[in-house]
Amino acid sequence: MENRLTVSSSPHIRSTETTQKIMRDVTIALLPAAAFGVYNFGLRALAILVLSILTAIVTEAACQKIRKQPITIDDFSAVVTGLLLGMNLPSTVPFWIPIVGSIFAIAVVKQAFGGLGHNFINPALAARALLVASWPVEMTTWTAVTPDATSTATVLGIIKEGLDVPMPSLLDTIIGTIGGCIGETSALLLLLGGLFLIYRGIISIRIPGIYIGTVAILTLLMSGFDVQVTLFHIFSGGLILGAFFMATDYASSPITIKGQVIYAVGLGLLTTIIRFYGGYPEGVSYSILLMNVAAPLIDKYTKPRLFGGAK
Asked: How many whole angstroms separate alpha carbon 194 and alpha carbon 291?
């Protein structure tokens, strides 16, 4: 009788998804918002995005070559890291800024810890935090979306500092015709990109939905039930970009359902506290990085109970 039993190690059920497919879908989801950023801020924004992506790819290949590992730049993971970093930069930064940032993101945060899937924090956000700490002036100089490209404050900066300057409309904020980082201005296109990832099964609505919802509820309470201020806090800054594209990073977010809920609530709490009480008008980047560090501990205490087997 033919033996049809095949004994092998787990996993016994395999997915048809590959890293390349997942990262390609993330890239596709980010492209509309990135393209809108180029439309807003011009060819200089395009140059920054290209420099960031190319540096990430070259650094990844160089690190793998030095470590005598297979070159995997065709899996799009370096492209995603470079694109996310570029989208988190103002269009006014010197061209060496995206180069330094991408080298740090790939060589230090990703490859030094073992490569794809082993980074304990989001590489693009870690690089952005380094750049803000090292070159705060260059990283906080914003350009207005106007023909003369004058310097301006972001929406969150205007609200936090109480500046006596014209406030953009909520519609402009949602569409994205406001000052800010290259790829974070259009909440509409970022939301569409996030919904595309949910439709494709790349992410679930759990983390971004709870994160954004927590920020909305806390902001409404802390602003004295000011609905307009709450909506500006939701649709401006890096909340939508961070919630859908960086807080959901597989390697640096919890894997249990309960853990993801705790993680998302923590993100919303930290973001709101930093925005209202911190010295910086935006809190998304630091909130995600802090909760990335906490993710292993969250998983440890939320892992499901095992039944059967030895003690």
From this structure: 20
